[in-house]
Every structure is written in structure tokens, then in C-alpha cells.
Amino acid sequence: MAGSVEMVMTTGFTATPADRSLREAARELTLSAHSDLYVIDTAGLLIGIVTDYDLVKHAVNGGNWNLPVERLMTSPGVMFTPDQPLLEVAAIFRQQSLARAPVVREDRPIGSICRRDLLCSLIGDVLSGAVSVDPAADEISHIVPPPHYLTRLARRDQEAGAKSHE
């Protein structure tokens, strides 16, 4: 699994200030295409995460929607940087059973990475021949990575080709 987080991460995310009410934060999250909300401080630094599951649990438990987001957030335990090697990230995902995690630059959120991003990288490596696979497992060739990953994979291949011609 060659490459870095930056090659496969998703750059879109939804962020909210720590003092925003849970009601407003829930509205933001439901209007977004994301399943988690990055909680930032006044300097724009990532200080926590509220997931859609956190909000569902809060609703089921009859929680107070006027509380600030910071009362429900979980401090981000694992964050990645754009330059981290994917193999290292995959090992951390496996060890900690992660589904997704924020990507930060100088503690400011710039995107996220999820298991699917890692899977697409692995599939791209298999399809390009960078990783060998049992020929009997031909069904892997029917899996198509998402377009944002294919664009980054093509860019990586172009950059590698340009370097080899130098």
C-alpha cells in the first residue's frame, strides 16, 4: 500500500464551534453529507468530534438539546496528517478498529480518512500490479474505486512517470 494519506483522504468535512448548541449542530450535520462533526476551538483547532451515532444516543436518552457541543463531543484520540504513509495508517486502523478518523495539518482539520479510502488504495495497488494477488481471486477486478481516488491515483502515476524520466 504505497502512498500517503493525502492521496486518498476526503477533503470535505463539517466543523462547528465548541459552544454551538447541540440543536444547531444536529441541524448542521443532518444537512451535510457527513456522519461526523468536527468540533473546533476559536483558533480553528480540532478539539473533538460528535458523530451521528452520538446524536442518536442523545436523542434516545432524552438529552438536552440546548447544551453546547463540547459537552457531548469525544476528544479526537487518533488523528492523521496528510504525509503519513498509508501502510502505517492501515495498521493503526486495524489495531484500533477505526472506521474513520480526521486528517489535520497543524491540528486544524483538513479532511478525513476512512476504511473505504484504505480499501480503494489497496485495490488500486492490486489492479496496477503493485501488489500481487491470487489469480483465482479474479472478482477483485470488478471492484471500482470511487472517482476521487482514481483521480489521485492517476496523478500519483503521472508524478512517478515524470520522476523516472529525469
UniProtKB/TrEMBL annotation:
Gene3D superfamilies hit by this protein: CBS-domain
Keyword Transport: no
SUPFAM superfamilies given in the database record: CBS-domain pair
Keyword set, alphabetical order: CBS domain, Isomerase, Repeat
InterPro entries on file: CBS_dom, CBS_dom_sf, CBS_domain-containing
Entry keyword Calcium: no
Gene Ontology molecular function: isomerase activity
Domain annotation CBS: ranges: 9-67, 73-128
A family per Pfam: CBS
Protein name (Swiss-Prot/TrEMBL): D-arabinose 5-phosphate isomerase
Organism annotation: Maioricimonas rarisocia
Organism lineage: Bacteria, Pseudomonadati, Planctomycetota, Planctomycetia, Planctomycetales
